[in-house]
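Duplicate of #3305? Posting structure anyway:
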């Protein structure tokens, strides 16, 4: 996949993350984990969205501009993996919010993810 498509995918995933975050938080299904972004979300949806888009656009442009460097390609790959994983979190949030996952399953996934994170920390 060409670097332009990868950076466009990264920006699209960033935008989708922002919109889904606003939806889940405003409907009481989730909270924003990043305290700085949570403060922006407390101010309003537009400031949150503007900063999220600005950060995503800046990251995508930097990674695209220096895409010929190995470090930029690795950074882009890592960013895509993280955002794709984040879309999985949004998927589970949606399934849970609409009652398609049991509370027990959600609890076990939370415990598993904390143990998994602790293993690498």
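Output from current build:
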């Amino acid at each position: 996949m060409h670097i332009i498509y990868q950076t466009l995918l990264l920006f699209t995933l960033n935008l989708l993350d922002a919109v889904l975050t606003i939806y889940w938080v405003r409907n009481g299904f989730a909270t924003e984990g990043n305290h700085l972004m949570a403060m922006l979300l407390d101010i309003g949806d537009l400031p949150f969205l503007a900063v999220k888009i600005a950060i995503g656009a800046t990251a995508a442009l930097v990674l695209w501009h220096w895409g010929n460097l190995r470090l930029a390609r690795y950074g882009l790959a890592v960013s895509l993996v993280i955002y794709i994983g984040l879309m999985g979190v949004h998927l589970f949030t949606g399934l849970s919010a609409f009652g398609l996952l049991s509370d027990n399953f959600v609890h076990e996934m939370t415990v598993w993810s904390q143990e998994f994170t602790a293993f690498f920390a």
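Confirmed duplicate; merging threads. The mean pLDDT is 90. The helical segments are 3-26, 35-43, 45-65, 70-97, 103-120.
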